[in-house]
């Protein structure tokens, strides 16, 4: 049971949220609320302190930012540290967001990053943290946030990251979290920091499983044949594992190699596949442009979607005309902020992790149909 908490002074000049945060902090520091214990639900706490939920949540956000508690969806608020060696978040109250670019088109083509940035903005606003944004190229020598570095607690790094970008970023001397993996990397990113990303194995396992659950057995996959990045191997591994787990088995003839993720190569790869006359009822694609190319190739040969072929596409965002499996980019951004604050306020317990965002499938009825029986 949580010990009695000191009621706030409604006549004091100090903000009610600060008084509440201080009252709970003292109980945690004295181990009257031990590490691992859950705090009462927010509605119960707001009644205890006789304040509205908005004020109560500001107090909890302050305690979370300082590393005392962690708020976990569907699990409640848990005490995680009684004496965090916290950075002074009042003195350093800004996070720098760095978007890495290789070409000029990277700077103008930002749809996936827009969702991540929105999530970052939501979480920093909730925690009352300022936000600074900068785009850097590989040839930049001295990255600068225009003299604001002294007010910054750390960095969130995203975009088309390379080792050259990281060399530049390290010059700032600030802690950082990576959102996504390094480009052109043949193995998983091995940095001494968190990497917040999606799990390609799990994404393609889930997409294949959904098609199996809909009655499909002859399921094809279109994958990148040229790029030797490790995540492409993870896509194939997830697809194959799902088939094996459901007793279907893997057939090389259903694995369609595409030169890259473009519309043109998706279209040509699908055309070559159809010429072989291989029987199939469903397809899992790796990207929206590649998928659209494949679907158009099918339609030119008289195959309708989903009438003849069911399709699930992995994308960075929801596609209006296609069943899409994706990881919520806004959640990626929110999780990046959460992990950076945790890293800064829990130096004794923090360890670098790969933090995965669970995938979800939307618009399934648009391009997936349930079938009965099995094609031999």
Low-pLDDT residue spans = none
Q: How far from one another are the termini?
A: 62 Å
User: How are the strands of the biggest sheet laid out side by side?
Assistant: 4-3-5-6-7-13
* CATH homology group of the largest domain: Response regulator
Task: Tell me what the structure shows.
The protein has 376 residues and is of the alpha/beta class. It folds into three domains: 16-79, Winged helix-like DNA-binding domain superfamily/Winged helix DNA-binding domain (Arc Repressor Mutant, subunit A), CATH 1.10.10.10; 94-198 and 328-358, Response regulator (Rossmann fold); 200-326 and 361-367, Response regulator (Rossmann fold), CATH 3.40.50. The chain is 38% helix and 19% strand. It is built from twelve helices and 14 strands. A six-stranded parallel sheet has the order 4-3-5-6-7-13. A hairpin with a 3-residue loop joins strand 1 (69-72) and strand 2 (76-79). Helix 5 (111-126) crosses helix 11 (329-345). The radius of gyration is 24 Å and the shape is elongated.
């Amino acid at each position: 049971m949580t010990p009695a908490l000191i009621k706030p002074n409604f006549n004091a000049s100090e903000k009610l949220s600060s008084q509440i945060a201080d009252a709970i902090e003292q109980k945690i520091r004295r181990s009257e609320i031990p590490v691992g214990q859950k705090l009462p639900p927010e509605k119960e706490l707001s009644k205890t302190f006789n304040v509205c939920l908005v004020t109560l949540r500001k107090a909890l956000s302050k305690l979370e930012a300082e590393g005392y508690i962690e708020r976990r969806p569907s699990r409640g608020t848990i005490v995680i540290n009684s004496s965090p060696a916290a950075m002074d978040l009042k003195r350093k109250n800004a996070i720098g967001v760095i978007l890495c670019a290789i070409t000029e088109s990277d700077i103008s083509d930002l749809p996936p990053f827009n969702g991540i940035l929105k999530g970052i903005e939501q979480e920093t606003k909730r925690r009352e943290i300022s936000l600074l944004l900068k785009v850097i190229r590989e040839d930049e020598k001295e990255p600068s946030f225009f003299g604001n570095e002294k007010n910054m607690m750390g960095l969130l790094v995203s975009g088309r990251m390379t080792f050259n970008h990281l060399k530049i970023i390290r010059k700032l001397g600030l802690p950082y979290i990576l959102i996504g993996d390094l480009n052109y990397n043949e193995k998983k990113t091995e940095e001494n920091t968190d990497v917040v990303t999606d799990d390609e194995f799990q994404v393609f396992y889930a997409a294949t499983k959904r098609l199996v659950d809909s009655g499909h057995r002859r399921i094809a996959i279109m994958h990148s044949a040229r790029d030797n990045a490790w995540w492409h191997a993870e896509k194939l591994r997830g697809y194959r594992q799902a088939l094996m787990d459901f007793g279907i088995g893997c057939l090389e003839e259903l694995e369609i190699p595409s030169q890259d993720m473009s519309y043109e190569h998706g279209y040509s790869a699908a055309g070559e596949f159809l010429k072989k006359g291989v029987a199939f009822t469903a397809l899992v694609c790796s990207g929206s442009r590649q998928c659209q190319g494949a679907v158009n190739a099918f339609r030119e040969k008289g195959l309708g979607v989903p009438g003849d072929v069911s399709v699930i596409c992995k994308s960075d965002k929801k596609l209006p005309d296609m069943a899409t499996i994706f990881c919520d980019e806004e959640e990626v951004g929110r999780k990046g902020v959460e992990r950076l604050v945790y890293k800064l306020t829990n130096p004794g317990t923090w360890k670098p992790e790969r933090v995965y965002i669970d995938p979800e499938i939307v618009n399934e009825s648009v391009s997936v149909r349930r079938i009965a029986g099995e094609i031999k």
